[in-house]
Amino acid sequence: MSARRTVKSPGGAVSHLHRQGRAAHVFLIPWQLGLVLITAVPLLASLYLAFTDYDILASPHFTGLDNFRRMAQDTQFWHAARVTLIYVAVSVPLQLAFALLLALVLDRGLRALAFYRSAFYLPSLLGASVAVAILWRQIFGDTGLVNRALSLIGVHGHSWLQDPATALATLILLHVWAFGSPMVIFLAGLRQIPDDLYEAARVDGARLWRQFRHITVPLLTPIIFFNLILQTIGAFQSFTQADIVSKGTGGPSDSTLFYTLYLYKQGFVNFDMGYASALAWVLMAVIGVITAGHFLASKYWVFYGDE
User: Fold this and answer.
1) Which residues are CB-neighbours of 280 under 8 A, at least 6 positions away?
2) pTM for the complete prediction?
3) In this structure, what is the dihedral angle of CA atoms 93, 99, 104, 106, given to the nearest 10 degrees?
């Protein structure tokens, strides 16, 4: 008795694919609505407001490029931009270096690796939270943990957050402390490097530093580049730390007046929404230019497996 075979016609297969496609579009409707209503529409609205004088209470009044001309003469704008650039330029390399160092230590095959990996990743989950910012303010305050520790060895500390010379450094330290996310990514990249390369290098007499320089770093450059892009964008957008630690004032002598904090003050304290929108678009443009620069420079130092 021969078995009966059922052969689907090409038309039936195409109809089945069309039904699947319609079902996929139905499930994507909530995301598409969110993209349009929560992202696209406010984005275009802020672009229009950037060329207006708008204080929320009255209708927007088109002023052309006046907001951008105002920026060129705004000393606080330039000060906030300088503070933010210093913060990004110092905190991002330090964070990536520390994350890579910890990843190298964990990659040596420690016991309870899962526990250490989770413990080190935890600050990344809490690093930008209000609770951690308040804790940081308590640690570096006049009677905080740092000054109490210094008093044990006879050193009289000061308020690290009220001194213009050290206020920004405490926020940089807070950003470096949240190293868990790049560390986990570095650790995953280290696990992808073949052990045969290290064995061959040891046979040739290469010490740990030469192995790190000529094997680990070149093969890890795509991961370094990925972390560099993410952490640079995140550092430019830092807000909660500066707002909570400085109590929304920008710190002593505006030493912790981040660009995002200045943008927030213009929009939601002074209700100058037109100027705040212009500030937001300038920030977006700067991040875009710096990111594009990273991509252009990556061809000189990032090496992929097929090269």
Assistant:
1) 46, 50, 263
2) 0.86
3) 170
